[in-house]
Design goal:
Layout (H helix, E strand, L loop, with lengths): L3 E6 L8 H9 L8 E5 L2 H9 L4 E3 L2
Antiparallel strand pairs: 1-2, 1-3
Length: 59
């Protein structure tokens, strides 16, 4: 069984560059306080690293 990460959106996307909006949407987050459980791999960690001010890892 592969490991997983719980990612939560903590800030709004209003006024953010389109690249950051697309990254957050790519993570599957739709609104503030929305949590998604994602597979723990290099791709997901790279996406989180690009928008650390908008999301946080819950677990």
């Amino acid at each position: 069984m592969s490991k997983s990460l719980k990612v939560q959106q903590v800030r709004s996307l209003i006024g953010r560059p389109m690249e950051q909006r697309l990254i957050v949407r790519g993570l599957g987050l739709k609104r503030i306080r929305h949590i998604r459980e994602l597979q723990d791999n290099e791709c997901i960690r790279g996406m989180i690293a690009k928008v650390p001010h908008l999301v946080r890892v819950v677990e």
